[in-house]
Amino acid sequence: PSAAPPSVAPPAEAAAAPVVPSAAPPSATPSSAVPVAARPSAGAREAFVEAWAIRAAAEAAGLRLADGVYANAAAALNAGKHLVLTGARGSGKTTLALAIARAAAQAGHAKGATVVTGAPAHPLVTDAAARGRWVIADELDQADLDAALKPLSTLLAGVPVTVDGQEAAPANGWRIVATWNGSPPRGEAVLRRFAAIDVARPPIDELKALVRQDDPTAQEAVETLLALGLPVGAGVLKEAADHIEARQAAVPTDASTLADEAVAAYISPLIDL
């Protein structure tokens, strides 16, 4: 198979910020960066966005997830769905959303991405859709779903809408990729055009390798964190493990203190313990 296509990184924008042109594409990703097992077979039907391309973009950003997450997202896009990425805080949902947009740009289906937080402003979404810029709706769980998405239901179906007396049509292949902390509510009609993709933690062996420490006391503290089974993503646990490493190197203490400090600093602000 040929090398992976160029990686086009869509610029992140503040909530309700004006849409700006997409960045110029950097050099091509070397084929060695894409695991052979993740590349499409010679006889495979071409997908809308390839799972291996999403994985390559995600890993280039430092994100590692189970292969099934990438395959699940690619399959939903191939079915014509918008995406809502669900999972614990710190699981990499936003990074994955941006990786999906990059892979879509590589495949010629996106002209960059516009990032908003919470409820996306309707004129911004309409403009982005017409220009072929995918919308990353980060932390959509913070928004009122009916207010945020119901007025966009026609646009989400790929049907032109009239805005300020002018017709605006979404570009072919345009998508919204939203992130949602936890699980989205059931029975919401406005979400029927979205496929929910669970951004699960990597397998336990990979997670342990990610947070492993050389210092025995720091390693004991990390194992204590993992044993708690807290509902946070791998990214949060990696930050906590790095904190434990630096704290122990500066002023050594016992494993229990290290674990307690890491929980207070990185986990308690996110979830109720």
From TrEMBL:
Matches recorded under InterPro entries: AAA+_ATPase, P-loop_NTPase
Domain of life: Bacteria
Biased composition (Low complexity): 1-22
Residues covered by the AAA+ ATPase domain: 79-205
Region annotated Disordered, chain positions: 1-35
SUPFAM superfamilies membership: P-loop containing nucleoside triphosphate hydrolases
Gene3D superfamilies: P-loop containing nucleotide triphosphate hydrolases (3.40.50.300)
Stated name of the protein: AAA+ ATPase domain-containing protein
Species the sequence originates in: Solirubrobacter ginsenosidimutans
